[in-house]
Amino acid sequence: MDRLASLTAFVRVVESGGFTAAARRLDLSTTTISNHVQALEDGLGVRLLNRTTRRVGLTEIGREYYERCSQILQDLAEAEEITSAFQVTPRGRLRLRCHQALERFIAPVATRFSRDYPEVSLDFQTDTMIDPVDPVREGFDLSIMPASPPDSILIRRTLAKWHYLLCCAPAYLESHSTPHSPADLANHNCLLYAHAVYRDEFHFVDPAGNATNTRVSGNLVTASITVMREAATAGLGLCLCPPFVVSDLLASGMLVPLLPDYRTQELEVVALYPQRRQLSTKVRLLLDMLVERFVDEQRWLDAMPDR
Predict the structure, then answer these.
(1) Residue 201 sits in the same domain as residue 286
(2) pTM for the structure as a whole
(3) How far from each other are the two terminal CA atoms of the chain, in whole angstroms?
């Protein structure tokens, strides 16, 4: 068998977390991928992967072999990138994945990128999952997530570290008392985001540094950021959201911040991409735009009063 093809199949199986996902990524049959890996193991006389019905894992020697093979493929990709660097205009396909909660925030960047680089075919996908194995297993070049998966073999770059914002519509406060401490939230209708890590327990730190977890309740639980925004602006209740979900509503006055003296739990937004010493030009350009977007948001948050 083609040695390079077998090395590629093996590396993609590891990156994808399984033979089926690797086959989809390489547009080959699962049997072909399995045969490539088996040929490597037979030729080396060692087992590289531990196979189960649910997933595959690296053996100790398999991990060492993977790191070397991955570097070889990266070097080849970089050699090709050197030749393409002479092209003034980026071209080709670029697959971007982001968490649903970040969709509205990142959409302007995707639009601007497509306008500035029309010869790049941008595939922009969203979902609600934070994959514990590999968020680019389906061949995504870049993944933006409000958390970092454990034990990831991907390169991780922090884009922002923000605290959640508690807010509501002015109309809500016209018929309800303004909360002055986390304990007051027991008397309020709290809108809950189904995919939030905090669920129905909000975490606060007071000015003295004392932490408290406050159990809350409300008559709306939703997995939709759009529904959460609509419910909050309609005056249905309080919401605890990342800044990028509500910053435009706060800027327009449709929502107002609450408990400004209390710090909420921190949210880290990260960019994840496959290991390589040199990013492709199109991925680097998109990542630069995303960094700029997050920096601008941080400037706005720093200048926001009553935070």
Answers:
(1) no
(2) 0.66
(3) 62
